[in-house]
Amino acid sequence: MSRFRACSLNQPFLLPPTIQDWIPENHLARFIAETADHIDLTNILNKYQRKDSRGAEGYHPLMLVRLLLYGYAVGIVSSRDLEKATYDQVAFRYLAADQHPDHDTIANFRRNHLEQLGELFTQGLELCREAGLVKAGRVCLDGTKIAANASRRKNMDHEKLQQQEAELKAKVAELLSEAEARDQAEDQKYGKGKRGDELPKELADRQQRLKRIQEAMERLQERNKQKAEQAEKERAGQKASEEPLSEAQRKLWYRARKAAEQQQGEINLTDAESQLMKNGNVGGYVQGYNAQAAVLENQIIVAAEVTDEAADKQQLVPMTAKVIQGLGSAPTAVLSDSGYFSEEAVSDESLKGIHLLVPPDRGKPGEKLKATAPRGEVAMKMRKRLAKKAAAKVYRLRKQTIEPVFGQIKEARGFRRFLLRGLKAVSAEWRLIALTHNLLKLFRNKWQKSAPALAVAAV
User: I want to staple 91 with a disulfide (CB 3.0 to 4.6 A). Which of 29, 112, 164, 398 is the partner?
Assistant: First the structure.
């Protein structure tokens, strides 16, 4: 007769259970827990200082940080999904110490400490440095479009905003008149000073929407002003170039300019700082942000920022500055695609001494030049640099170094849309993504060396 182990769900424990028995020794959750213990949470804890000790005890920030770090690492970022996971998934239950913060608690913690959570990226980079994963060398720079928490159907141009503003003003005036008449009638019926003076819900909602539209109109006007100044600057730079544009170049430039003008003339009412951007990898357009990353050859992210500019042209100088800050010294070389090239950026004083490999032309270096290729002296020097075999060989490393990073973030971890809204918020969220990417690299490097047989499905 076969013998089986007992599997009764009512079997009592003979000894007190321990949380440490819930997951394998080499599990990612255990690594996240130990990493969180080494992170300085002073800036978050300082926000909890009270004048007295009244009130119920709150959930410990360390536990909530553990949940968020592990959640972003395995692609679970919604506060409701995180709450559910503390019941359904043993790794989350382990990290929560068998506690179950509700989704409001998790969402409020992330919202209230977003800036401090984004700053943890620097501490994660230091942990990678201690493990020998961060060394000054070649850095690859690129950007990827991440969808905003907003629908492109909520985009409106200035004319549509004005129309809606006028309609809402008329409706608000009508509702205010009705409310005033009702107040007078109730005063006569119930007496002066009685309750009933609250704004009707319909009026409050319309007033809130009117305010959002007026703010959107102001932001759109400011954005158009900045775009016009940038276009004038680029036009002046083109006039100063040594050779005039060909007819083909002029037509392409004109079409690109018209497309940019059409896009900049709209603003999104859900997330006013997001933009309608062309998604070059998959085609079409996405309402979102341009997420920037600079990575070493071992794919450690040393700089992560977000911009609302669809093009990368303005990002070479500020991103290299972030790289220097992250490394503690200048990289030996910076590799990026042609979208980052401008004669002004490549010639910037702050980049002197750094070997730049930034092609002026689209396509592979050495191929037939595209019609939009810059033709100034700086561009010609860069072409000659990239034409050398040694430089071309190094430049080929760019695509295989940085594009897998975006692939791992978007495909393996499923992060294709920001959860939060506004440039400041999504910038912090992107740094959280970069932090957990580096922690996964550190986990593979440090922990799986000691026990390679224990694979973690989430990584």
Answer: 29
Which residues, in sequence order, are bridge partners of residue 231? none
User: Residues 37, 98: one domain?
Assistant: yes
Q: Does the structure show a pLDDT above 70 at 125?
A: yes
Cβ-defined contacts of 159-167 (< 8 Å, 24+): 161/213, 161/216, 161/217, 161/220, 161/267, 162/217, 164/213, 165/210, 165/213, 165/214, 165/217
Q: Are residues 180 and 192 in the same domain?
A: yes
- List the CATH number of the domain containing 352: 3.30.420
Question: 333-335 and 138-147 as β-strands: parallel, antiparallel, unpaired?
Answer: parallel
| DSSP symbol at 411 | I
- Diameter of the chain by CA atoms? 93
Residue ranges with strand state E in 148-201? 155-157
In terms of domains, do 202 and 218 share one?
A: yes
User: What amino acid occupies position 44?
Assistant: I
Task: Verify that 302 and 337 share a domain, yes or no.
Answer: yes
The percent of residues in the chain predicted with pLDDT above 90, rounded, is 54
Kindly give, in sequence order, each residue whose CB lies less than 8 Å from that of residue 370, ignoring residues fewer than 6 positions away. 361, 362, 363
Residue 200, pLDDT above cutoff 60 = no
Q: Half-sphere exposure (CA, 13 Å, Cβ side) for 328? A: 7
Between CA 291 and CA 305 the distance in angstroms is 6
Residues 242 and 290 in one domain: no
- Confirm whether 53 is domain-assigned: no
Q: CA–CA separation, 352 vs 317, rounded Å?
A: 11
Note the pLDDT of residue 208: 65
For β-strands 333-335 and 301-307, DSSP reports them as unpaired
Taking CA 101 as the corner, what is the angle to CA 95 and CA 106, rounded to the nearest 5 degrees? 90
What pLDDT digit, counting tens, does each position of 224-240 carry?
A: 666 655 666 655 555 55
Reported as a single tens digit per residue, the pLDDT across 76-112 is: 999 999 999 999 999 999 999 999 999 999 999 999 9
Confidence of residue 285 (pLDDT cuts 50, 70, 90): confident
Cα–Cα distance, 305 to 223 (Å, whole number)? 20
- Is there a single domain that holds both residue 210 and residue 241? yes
Q: Distance between CA atoms of 378 and 21, rounded to whole angstroms?
A: 62
**HSE-CB for 360 with a 13 A CA cutoff:** 24
Helix (H) or strand (E) holding 345: helix 343-346
